[in-house]
Amino acid sequence: MRGRNPYLAAGEARRPTRPYTITVRHPPGPDSPGDTVIFVDPEHLSNGDHGLVGSVLGQALAAGVEIEHSCGGVLACSTCHVYVTAGGKSCGEASEEEEDMIDGAPAVRSTSRLACQCVPDGSSDIVVDVPAWNRNAVKEGH
Ligand code: FES
Q1: 68: how many CB neighbours lie within 10 A of its CB?
Q2: Are 92 and 73 in contact (CB under 8 A)?
Q3: Which entry of 25, 33, 96, 100 is 20 to 30 Å from 111 by CA?
Q4: Is 118 touching ligand 1 by the criterion CB < 6 Å?
C-alpha cells in the first residue's frame, strides 16, 4: 500500500533546514544489519515512497535501510514503531492520530514514535532503535 492517509492534513510536519544524521540501530542477531548512519540533506528529502516526506522511514528507505512498514506509511498500523533514543526533541510532538496508533504497538516507551510520521527538523542528529519484534516481523516476511 502506498500513498497518504486521506484523513490527515498535509504539510503539518516541520522540515529540516540543515543537514543532520539519523543513526538506525537494528537489534543484534545473525541477520541484523547492525547500525547505519544516514546523512540527510534538507535539499533532497524523500519519503522513499512510504510515509511523510522527510520522515525517518522515508529517509531510511531512500538510503536502503529497511524498517518494517506494513501499511506503506499511511498511519494504519504500528509496524514502523521505533524508539528515538537521542535527538527526540527535534522530532516535535506526535499527532493524536500517531499516538493512538502507537498505543496499539507492543513494548511502548516514552521514546516511541512511528517512523513514517516522525519528521526531524534537523536541529540535532538523532538515533533510532528498531525493536527486536520489528526485526522478527521482517525476517518472517510480514
Ligand atoms: S508504516 Fe504503518 S503506521 Fe507507519
Answers
A1: 22
A2: no
A3: 33
A4: no
| pLDDT one-digit tens code per residue, 55-91 | 999 999 999 999 999 999 999 999 999 999 999 999 9
Residue 69 CA: nearest ligand 1 atom is 1
Element at 21 (helix H, strand E)? strand 20-25
CATH code assigned to 20-139: 3.10.20.30
Cell numbers for 114, please give them: 512511528
pLDDT at 11 over 50: no
Whether the Cβ atoms of residue 22 and residue 120 lie closer than 8 Å to each other? yes
Is any ligand 1 atom within 6 A of the Cβ of residue 113? no
